[in-house]
Specification:
This protein is an alpha/beta fold and 678 residues long. 53% of the residues lie in helices and 9% in strands. Strands 3-2-1-4-5-6-7 form a 7-stranded parallel sheet, with helices on one face.
Length: 678
Amino acid sequence: MDNAQTQSLFAVATEHHRANRLTEARAGYEKILVLDPAHADALHLLGVVLHQSGQDSDKAIELVRRAIALNPSAPEYHANLGLIYSDRRQWKEAAGAFGQSVALRPRFAPVLNYLGNALREMGQLEAAVAAYRRAVEARPDFFVAFNNLGNVLRELNRPREAADACRRAIALKPDFAAAHNNLGNALNKQDRVDEAIAEYRMALSLDPQYAESRSNLGNALKDVGRLDEAIAAYREALALNPNLAKCHANLLYDLHYRDEFDPLETLAESRRWAGRFADPLSSHVRAHTNQRDPDRRLKIGYVSADFCQHSVGSFLLPLLKCHDHQRFEIICYSNLRAPDRITAIMRQTADAWRDILGMPDDRASELIRQDGIDILVDLGGHTAQSRLPLFALRPAPIQMTYLGYPGTTGVAAIDYRLTDALADPPGMTETHFSETLLRLPRSNWCYAPLVDAPPVGRVPSLAVAEQNQSPRQVCFGSLNNFAKVSKATFQSWATLLCAIPNSRLLLKAKALAGESVRREVVGRFADLGVAPGRLDLRGRLLNPIEHLATYGEIDIALDTFPYHGTTTTCEALWMGVPVVTLVGISHVCRVGVSLLSSVGLADLIAQTPEQYIEIAARLASDLPRLSEIRAGLRARMSASPLMDAPSFARDVEAAYRAVWKKWCADESGTISPVTAPR
């Protein structure tokens, strides 16, 4: 071996590499390795070139690992190995490689930043924060790391710190569009929606092609009830980048909020989403080898990003607690970023718990197959952090969706959707879904109230009138997400207030923390004849006890339409507050029908907007009925199907068993409709 010759060849190859002439660089490194197979730098950089060329990543990893074996003290080798693993979304391996690199060079700022990214993807958010902080300590002008730090702090629900980190990034680089976008996210998390919108617009002024920021702008516009603008923003973002799956999912969700909600249009849009992001994966589906025994113990898998204190958790926990583990083995596949005390309780209810956050769909699918899951249940639909493409790989022979999303997934590999006959009456809504509807015999929901919820008091308008020795002033209220307050809902509420002069309306929502939204709401009601003094507009309360205590000021809750409340309705009922709802012809506007019927308040279900107003007005004038409902509603709810967790669990398990028997009987393994037994 001629050392001078290899040095010369190496200099030429690295010059090609720096100039991005990757073919020439590869040839140069390969020539060196013919002369000197143990040339560690050539092995390392040949692996890097293969990776950069988008060629054999397995070979790239092998080459870099061979270089590390020859020279384990080179931090750059470990760093580049971590980058290859990152591109393969093998986050555990990436974090290990980056960790080795910074162990050798503790102030290696770029690699500390990469380490933070890998830890974030793995859900190790506190460790990611520590890595980013080390990066900016090593390089105080590292604006990218400040921006990444802000993202993780927001995910840890520390939005003020997140905003500070993003502002540091902007101070270092004022034209950093991503930092303005992420500052908008942090401000939105603080319910400072007006300021968030301004930051998204700033990001877009700096980079008009920034599709993700346009999507986030859509989210903020939705939060303040500007649905047409939100939907337009999503469509603009998708025109810039059609591969934004989350943006397309946000569009799907927001279509449900519109006054003119069209379930068939939404189904078509859902199928378009699936056609791009899910259904093409079906070519990788393999036959299932699950034992076709109709009566054996079944393995049920639940997939969710919401195994925590969340609306989904309020309805899922009773089911998890009451499953019959002699007949069903329960495995939870968690895509959750920030576990909490409810997560710990849920873990205890499961036979096994798998963290799949950051795990590629193909690896998660293989894990589910190895676990031998018979029925896999999606709990997120098109909500944040859902894993619908995983279902397209069909890791289980039977797959269904439930609970977390009010519409169809559009995904061909999801066979069933759990519901009930009131939310989806036979013959009414089947054509709205790509899934076969599987109706539970009693209720689609089983609610678990907050254990330390405030006690139910007297009818508030009566108590206030007696205390102040003043005329009784009825308080209507809605604590629903403001995006649900459609134009038709506004009109009905205003008509109701005008019909009952001595009444007021309490609204509490994230959007109402913003001054511009409050002004807009006051103006819209004024145009409809309602004076500002009759409105009580409040921002969101993050403390759940304080949130529930608000119902102590409300006589009658008014449901939104066409998009009904679910958790909000259950919370109102638990606090003794009757809810008036307006029925529709699709699932999203029939949830209230199911919930109120479950607790024996079907007379509060209106068939027309006029009847909605009439029912609310009549109830407001019937103090004995209001007092009776308030005093007995919690006990009535506790005794209803809505809180009968053991019976609900048996109903769900009977549905699982029915579809399983159907699959066992069909040797082809195809799925055909069944009805859940009573």
